[in-house]
Structure formats: structure tokens, C-alpha cells
Specification:
Layout: E1 6-7, E2 13-14, H1 17-37, H2 46-54, H3 60-67, H4 71-92
Antiparallel strand pairs: 1-2
Helix pairs in contact: 1-2, 1-4
Length: 108
């Protein structure tokens, strides 16, 4: 039996949350790490940054580095973590009906 985890019509929709976490999140975290690496002022190494963005348990050394990080860096990391683990899965799991004429005037 074929498993349905993504839907491509009317746009990309994630149908299974576990698919997002297991298959998409690691790649999205890698892309986010590429962007963030330039802005972190050396607070986290590449491996630690990717672990953090994937939501994996951090070592004591990494936690200590984060405690001493500037506020701007912590804000960037928190935003990226929220984006990857909350906002993006939510948005990708919703069917957007507006552009397809499926909303009535009462829905607006």
C-alpha cells in the first residue's frame, strides 16, 4: 500500500507530521544552519548548530556556549528553532483556499 505523506495539489501540503520531522526537518535544518553560520559570531560550531536546529539533545559544553552568547545570536537561534519546529510545519500542513476561488464573501 502506498503511503501518502505529501500532497502536491493545489500546492505542496505535508499530510504526515512524522514525515516532516524525519525526512524534511534534517534538510531544512541544514539549510538554516548555512544561513545562520554567518551570523552566529562563532558561538556554535557547525555540528552543534545542526544538532540544535534539529532539536537534538545538546552537550553541556554547547549549553555553556549558549549561556554566554550575545542576545542577538540567541534571538536568531530561537527564531530559527521556532520557524523549523512550529511555523513551517503548520504552514505546510494547511490547504490555502484563497487563490483557488473556494472562499466565499462570508469566509473573508
Amino acid at each position: 500500500m502506498r503511503e501518502h505523506k505529501l500532497q502536491s495539489t493545489p500546492h505542496l501540503i505535508v499530510l504526515a507530521a512524522d514525515f516532516y520531522v524525519q525526512e524534511m526537518l534534517p534538510h531544512l535544518a541544514d539549510w538554516a544552519a548555512i544561513f545562520l553560520a554567518e551570523h552566529l559570531e562563532g558561538v556554535l560550531g557547525d555540528t552543534d548548530l545542526r544538532k540544535f536546529l534539529r532539536g537534538q539533545k545538546l552537550e553541556a559544553r554547547t549549553k555553556q556556549s549558549l549561556r554566554g552568547a550575545p542576545g542577538f545570536v540567541l534571538k536568531l537561534l530561537n527564531l530559527a528553532l521556532t520557524w523549523l519546529h512550529s511555523l513551517l510545519p503548520y504552514v505546510l500542513s494547511k490547504v490555502h483556499r484563497v487563490a483557488y476561488g473556494l472562499l466565499t464573501g462570508a469566509d473573508l
